[in-house]
Structures are given as C-alpha cells and as structure tokens.
TrEMBL record:
InterPro entries: P-loop_NTPase (IPR027417). It comes from Gilvimarinus xylanilyticus. SUPFAM superfamilies: P-loop containing nucleoside triphosphate hydrolases. This is Uncharacterized protein. Gene3D superfamilies: P-loop containing nucleotide triphosphate hydrolases (3.40.50.300).
Length: 205
C-alpha cells in the first residue's frame, strides 16, 4: 500500500509535526486516557472527512455522544453513527465491514486490543474503502503495523501530543495544542472568569 496522503488536522503545529497532516486511510493509534480531549483533537479532521454521505463511526465510546455538540462543532449528527459492540469477534467483523464499505470515512474504537494479523486485515480494508481506523485508549498494545501512532496527555487548556510511530518517518514531538486557538469563544483567554472548557460540554460525551 502506498503512503497515505495527509489531511489537515486543523492544528498547524500538529501538521508541521506530521509533515502534512493526519492519514487519509490506514490504522492509527491515539494513546490517551478517555476524556482528556481525544475527540477534540480529532474533530477538525473528522469534519473534513465526513463529506457527502460518508459516516464517522464511534464504537464503544466511554460516554454517550451528544447531538447538540456534534451539530455545532463537528460532523452533523446524521453522519455520526454510535455503536456498542461488547463481543470481540463481532467487533473485529464490524470494523472490517465499516472500513471496506466505502461509506465510512473514519472509524473510532475505544479500548480495542488487536493482534498483528487483525491489524494487517484492517489495513487492507481501510485502503480498499479509503477509510481510517483510530484505536483510542490507554491500554498497551503489542507491536502492530500502524500507519501512525500518537500519544497524548492533558494540559490545563489543551493537549500535548507526541508522534510515537509513523510509517516512513520517525518519532517526533511533543507539540502543545491550545484549545483557545481553535475555539476562542469556548476557551477564554487566561485570566477570564470562565473555567476552561466549562461551556464546551467536554466534547459531546
């Protein structure tokens, strides 16, 4: 498979760190504790990907997505499909079907432990369907052939991101991303009486 083209992440500093942007297709990893801003980090990218009739699929998220949030800040709620799939075998089947369907521009799954053979199958499915799978969570994964692996930790008004692995490149970072730069109305400047993120709704969970 050829290297995946980069898509604007919505954060210039992250684009520079990645040498262009986030992958258009493939299997990617975001190592992050749930609720630190993992959806926020990917939101501009997801919005760019959810064009025409393509869907963004959320599988086993740690909270229930809120329609009002997605209506204001991300892909329209009608383009966001939320699934809860507890059985691992069913989950792997669903991931492959979503990725290769050509109908899902991005698939996000939380706390999913996959093996190398599964990852290779999902890579081919993602390439066939021009889709990107994001494995999100703080669990330790075995060495699998990822297109990109990011690690993130929370900041008071943002998130710190490292590139820990990427196809055809080297680890890099960290880079600090400030939410206020992207959403100034919901993250007032330092010194403002409003608490950071208090009006943002913690990303619609």
């Amino acid at each position: 498979m050829p290297p995946a083209p980069g898509i604007d992440s919505g954060y210039p500093a992250l684009n520079r760190l990645l040498g262009g942007g986030l992958p258009e297709y493939g299997v990617c990893r975001l190592k992050a504790t749930a609720g630190i801003g993992e959806i926020r980090l990917l939101l501009p990218y997801l919005t760019r990907r959810a064009v025409d009739s393509s869907l963004v699929v959320l599988i086993n998220p740690p909270g229930r997505p809120q329609a009002d949030f997605w209506r204001k800040f991300g892909p329209a709620p009608a383009k966001v499909l939320n699934l809860m799939i507890p059985d691992r075998r069913d989950l792997l089947w669903c991931l492959q079907q979503c990725l290769q369907s050509g109908c899902c521009s991005a698939v996000l799954v939380w706390d999913c432990d996959i093996e190398t053979r599964h990852c290779k199958q999902l890579q081919h499915a993602a390439y066939a369907g021009n889709s990107c799978l994001w494995l999100i969570g703080d669990q330790t994964l075995s060495s699998i052939p990822l297109t990109l692996s990011l690690s993130a930790s929370p900041l008071a008004r943002g998130i710190r991101v490292w590139v820990t692995k990427r196809k055809g490149g080297w680890p890099a970072g960290p880079v600090d991303i400030k939410w206020q730069d992207r959403w100034p109305d919901f993250y007032p400047a330092v010194g403002h009486s409003c608490q950071p993120g208090s009006r943002f709704g913690e990303l619609g969970y």
